[in-house]
Design a protein that fits this description.
The chain has helices at 28-36, 88-97, 113-116, 137-148, 194-207, 234-241; strands at 8-11, 14-15, 46-47, 70-73, 102-107, 128-134, 154-159, 176-182, 192-193, 211-215, 219-222, 225-228. Residues 254-267 have low confidence and may be disordered. It has one domain (5-264). The chain has 6 helices and 12 strands. By secondary structure, the chain is an alpha/beta fold. It binds iron/sulfur cluster. Residues 17, 19-20, 24, 27, 29, 77-78, 108 line the site of iron/sulfur cluster.
């Protein structure tokens, strides 16, 4: 994990998403919308005021998102959401234009990937990182075979919120740059057992794939005992476990504590 937060930026070109699998049950977008009292249903995607952010410039004509940034993309929706199909081509154009930045999105819709990429995608844009999210074995068995065969230059597997023990070993090859695991946050969070996390870690170590335990979640189980972990401690407790393996240049953000800037959000 980098300690230099200045290298990160957020870009949420659209907001809102439809729930698609068990990991969506306590989606943080819905929780945040409720907290902010949004008048539009969280399931209704809409473009945000930040749609053109990668192209926006400051008074001195330099880009607002400075060159070299790792841009967390579409964390208040899913970049491959069906409702965003009309908007995505323009988003790709901006991503292509800004080759001086990295764009990183997570998705639970990897099965839509090939329908969603631009004509000149080829074997992938070098400045795009894709995180395929899996939360249980059913989603592993559905999403990872698809992910494995896609032309993407930078791939990570996001096992979060981890809802049960999962076996991803047959999908761990040198194309996977990182596996990141975390429990579920929020009121009513489902349990995450430390044994499942250690099991995933062993799978990664066996294949020499970088592994990160990025957050405990709110309901953590260790050695058969249940722990309630406050939101503020969920990242630091995971970090204290000190079980990351070969973590280098990328950082997977903790989406559950993600706050979007005011100017990216509107109804
Ligand atoms: S943003 Fe992610 S977690 Fe939330 S509903 Fe969409 S796919 Fe599910």
């Amino acid at each position: 994990m980098s300690d230099n937060w200045n290298i990160y930026a957020d870009w949420n070109p659209w907001h809102g998403c439809k729930k698609i699998s068990p990991g969506c049950k306590f989606c943080y977008v819905y929780r945040q919308d409720e907290m902010y009292g949004s008048e539009t249903a969280s399931s209704e995607a809409r473009k945000t005021l930040a749609f053109n952010l990668p192209m926006k410039r400051k008074r001195d004509k330099s880009y607002k998102i400075e060159p070299g940034k790792m841009v967390f993309t579409c964390f208040t929706s899913d970049f491959l959401l069906e409702d965003a199909d009309p908007w995505r081509p323009e988003a790709w154009k901006m991503i292509k234009e800004r080759k001086d930045c990295w764009f990183y999105f997570f998705t639970k819709r990897i099965h839509r990937f090939e329908k969603c990429v631009p004509d000149d995608w080829g074997d992938g844009y070098d400045n795009v990182l894709v995180g395929c999210t899996v939360e249980n074995q059913e989603m592993v068995d559905f999403r990872l075979p698809i992910f494995k065969n896609l032309p993407i230059r930078h791939k990570s597997i996001i096992a979060s919120p981890l809802l049960e023990r999962i076996d991803i070993s047959s999908y761990l090859d040198s194309s996977i740059e990182e596996v990141s695991v975390g429990g579920e946050s929020g009121v009513g969070a489902r349990p995450c057992d430390y044994d499942w996390i250690l099991d995933l870690r062993e799978q990664c170590i066996t294949k020499e794939i970088p592994f990160r335990f990025h957050q405990t979640g709110a309901y953590f189980v260790k050695d058969g005992r249940n722990y309630r972990i406050y939101r503020k401690d969920q990242l630091s407790q995971a970090h204290k476990a000190n079980i990351d393996y070969r973590i280098g240049k990328y950082f997977v953000p903790e989406t559950a504590c993600y706050q979007w800037p005011d100017d990216t959000y509107h109804d």
